């Protein structure tokens, strides 16, 4: 009888294909679904939409933890609600709220095809913030990759303007989202130990704190009135789509970890880059957009610069972890690459 811990080559390939496919489906699906909720649904309350998706994430974390504890059908971390831990996580939660708010506001004002380029400065801000806050220097090769990304970003903005679809508001929100994602990565590293290095538990506390932090922002933005007078407030389809957005956001945390486990942290980031390219092409086709050659060039430059930065940083990690055990090295790489560019958190809601 074959040992299940030593799967055949076909089973290994099948696991990789399934994991990568799930990551692509949930990630691309979440972007298109959020774009519909933020732009096509006539509800001028982007913060409320984000708040509701946070609520779904908290519910799913607590529900799955309870099921895991009581029935043992699967493994899911325990989710104790501790006010002390919540306070320790609060600085990160403030950054987290800014990140998901600016991220969704960017998506509200720009097209899905420009969405990746609009938020492409995350890597650049990560290098700058890491140096200013943590005092960590970056290699010359990584800085060259950042320069390439900056060039691609400005070329993309210029060409988006040439096609007449540029939203300066969306670009500003995209830049702020990129900065927030970089800060989120740094603060995540600082507070991860407070939740026992458990990314799921951190997700729960972040979203739980966000439920409270969003309330004054929604009040200030006048969204309570917008929701109260929304003509589809009791429409079943609307709430199904809202809940589906929250489920997709929650699943991003799982499929991201699954893809890393089935492949490697480097392959995960390469897959994310390829997914962004596919997402851009799909958006152009779906919305029947016409783009110039230079517009496509800007996307390629940003994607290439991001992929090269990932490769350069992975080589640096390999050198640092050369003396570590394989298990600790894998865990270190997973946490660093998950928090380096906020790949899971950035798309979670």
UniProtKB/TrEMBL annotation:
- From what superkingdom does this record's organism come? Eukaryota
- Provide one Gene Ontology cellular component: membrane
Membrane-spanning intervals of the chain: 12-33, 45-64, 85-102, 114-134, 141-157, 169-187, 208-230, 236-257, 293-312
Task: Give the subcellular location.
Answer: Membrane
Extract the PANTHER family matched here.
SOLUTE CARRIER FAMILY 35
UniProt keyword annotations, A-Z: Membrane, Transmembrane, Transmembrane helix
What's this protein's name? Sugar phosphate transporter domain-containing protein
Look up and give the organism this protein is from.
Caenorhabditis brenneri
**In what way does this protein cross or attach to the membrane?**
Multi-pass membrane protein
Q: Where is this region: Disordered?
A: 320-349
UniProt-listed InterPro entries: Sugar_P_trans_dom, TPT_transporter
